[in-house]
Amino acid sequence: MKRLAQILRASAWLGWQVEANWAEPALFLIYAVAKHAHELYVVLVRILLFLLVFVPVSAYEPWLRGRLKNVWREWMTRSFVEMGFAHRAFYQMIMGGYCGQSRPTHQ
Fold first, then answer.
1. How far is 36 from 44, CA to CA, in rounded Å?
2. Element (H, E) at 96
3. pLDDT tens for residues 33-89?
4. How would DSSP label each residue in 62-78?
């Protein structure tokens, strides 16, 4: 019975040392890091993907903003010119006055 108690105590102590890794602090640190290595890799991949998208977008943002302004201005100019010349609207504005009012006379 005494021998069984010694074996159980020794096996419990050994199990505690293996599970908790208190015997070697360096081994405990390696185990603690390796236990969460998958999550670390997932976070690193997310950060890398974010940087791969964010850095080029932020670098080209001023150029893209200027390009969109120019495209919008060209579209607005074209649409106003087309509306002004549609169905001879330009000539009707000249002959009929400004905004439906009579044309002012210059003396």
1. 12
2. helix 89-96
3. 777 788 888 999 999 999 999 998 889 999 999 999 999 999 999 988 887 777 766
4. HHHHHHHHHHHHHHHHH
User: Residue 73 corresponds to which amino acid?
Assistant: R
Q: Do the Cβ atoms of 16 and 22 come closer than 8 Å?
A: yes
Q: Which SS3 state, helix, strand or coil, does residue 21 take?
A: coil
Quickly count: other Cβ atoms within 10 Å of residue 22's Cβ: 11
58 phi, psi to nearest 5 deg: -70, -30
Token pair in block for residue 23: 């015997």
Which tokens belong to 39?
């999550």
Q: Specify whether the CB–CB gap between 84 and 90 falls below 8 A.
A: yes
| Concatenated DSSP letters of the chain | -HHHHHHHHHHHHHHHHHHH--S-HHHHHHHHHHHTHHHHHHHHHHHHHHHHHHHHHHHHHHHHHHHHHHHHHHHHHHHHHHHHHGGGHHHHHHHH-GGGSPPPP--
